[in-house]
Amino acid sequence: MNFVKRYLLPRLIIYFLVIFIGITTVFIIPRLLPTDPVLQTITRLRAQGAYMDPESTQRTIETLQELFGLKGSLSDQYLRFWQRLFKGDFGPSFFQFPTPVITLIKQSLPWTAALLLTTTLVSWFLGNILGGFAGYFSNQRWGRFLDYFAMVIRPMPYYILALGLLILLAYIFPIFPLGGGYTIGMRLTWSLNTLLTLLRHAFLPALSLLLIGTFVWFQAMKLVVQSVKNDDFVKYAEAGGIRLNKIATKYVIKNAMLPQITGLALSLGQIFSGALITEIVFSYPGLGTLLYNAIFTGDYNLLMGITAISILVVTTSILVIDLLYPLFDPRVRYK
Amino acid sequence: MKVLKDLLRDGKFAFGFFVLIFLIFLAILSFFSPYDPYRWNLVPRDMPPSLSHILGTTSRGQDVFWELCFAVRNSLIMSLIAGVLSRIIAILVGMIAGYKGGMADRFLMFVSDSFLVLPLFLIIVLIGSMAKARLNLVSLGLLLGVFGWAWDARVIRSQVLSLRERDFTYTSLLSGSRTMSLIFKEYMPFLTPLVFATFIGNVSWAIGMEITLAILNVLRIETPSLGTMLQWALNYQALLLGYWWWIGTPVVTSIMLFIALYLLSISVSEYLDPRMRVQRIGKA
Q1: Distance between alpha carbon A107 and the CA centroid of its chain, in Å?
Q2: What is the pLDDT of residues B256-277, one digit of tens each?
Q3: Which residues of B touch A160 (CB under 8 A)?
Q4: Does residue B194 sit in helix, strand or coil?
Q5: A78-106 in b/e burial notation, b at 16+ Cβ within 10 A?
Q6: What is the pTM assigned to this prediction?
Q7: Where would a tag sit more exposed on chain A, N or C end, judged by fewer CB atoms within 10 A?
Q8: What is the pLDDT of residues B91-138, one digit of tens each?
């Protein structure tokens, strides 16, 4: 009961508050900006050569206002915005009219989720273990080599690193496909061949996410380990003659990993954004590419839908990590 | 000057420093450019690097070298605006939250937590694409400044929290100094290294963001910057056509810039305070 009150409840409250703020921001931004999406859509229709007499223009404006949720007073709009959100209704997409936005998002979300989940987990473990060993045995040559490597990879923005890999491994040495999630015209069936194609297409995006992720965790872990290394219990274990490898894994890394779990929760939003950017570079059929199309076609409904869904997905994943944390840290459990 | 000499002994700092000096030199050079960066077809198109055009020319008939000078200048100005604005917000929020504590602290930290947790990139893209073509470099800098302070405010807050408990705080309060003078005279010297290191990190983030947003076509594409330069090259399929000098220039320049800024921030903060290393973790 104490656990629920002191740990679970505050986190749930913050979770709902953050979602509330995020979604409200998504609602406010288009209304604060000087551009009018309705007017823009009409201008675009006109530019495409559609002739409209004043009456039909008026009707179009009303329909568009309805579709964008721009009818009525601001508080009415806000209430309806939430009502529609709960039903998962973001209106139709303009880029693939009249497919509902939610259908498009449902199609792309699994690609992003699969890519993100595997790369985040793998890079987190890999980075922490490498960083743990490199921090504990800090005089080894391979550790310093990894350190220099990290200094080059770490500051790269996702876009530049992904583009670099694309140029290197798809243009100069054409080992991997230039983009896409599968070969054009291929049917997705359950077979080894399909799986291999999927993996081959996912390789470069995954590699760029892995590279950045691993070295971010590598550096963070190394710093934590360097301070844990001098703690009394480690000195005691060393004096007691326990094998160094065992001290590194069982004593040092295990303890240093705890702050890294919180770190994972805090940086998930950035990792998610990075994955979207990477998808755009490799035109991987996930949310990122959908976002790209939405921007280029000026599809506001789709843009807002993607942002709202992303806020939900990211905050929920952070909540899950937060709630799993007591499993790893007995100190929180028994408080 | 002695500080600079000491710092230059560090290989990391020396590398970062000279790359940055070189880029600033390029930025200054842009004031003497023989070409107008907004006009097309001033030079023959698609020429590989030669003596008259050191880095070749683009398909838009622009000289890559002079375009790069303008691009570096604009990117640097934009990121400085973002860095300075977000520093001001971060210092204010961190100080108030750390010094006042209580409700103010809880509220401000909740706001900064929300900023950390939300996928801000998407919100920036949303703003950018709705304000289409109105977002110039200054407004982009301000926008990024508004969004880039959350983590740094937390770092500053934790530093203020520990400063508040030290004896000199009580000494100076009891001897009647005002809160403002306490904060600016006594606390600022402790915070300067933090502010400086996070400033460099933020500048680097802003430049990366600018590149990403330019690729997404939510910026004014006529203004030369590292991002728009890359975007033009990609748009004209410089990669497929083999114009490596065109696409390579912004890519290599920005890679050098990112590494330089990163090395600078590492070595400056190590020089100022070795314990700071621990505080820099997690700024992914």
Answers
A1: 16
A2: 999 999 988 888 777 766 554 4
A3: 208, 211, 251, 254-255, 258
A4: helix
A5: beebeeebeeeebbbbbbeeeebbbebbe
A6: 0.86
A7: N
A8: 999 988 988 888 888 899 888 888 888 888 888 888 888 776 677 888
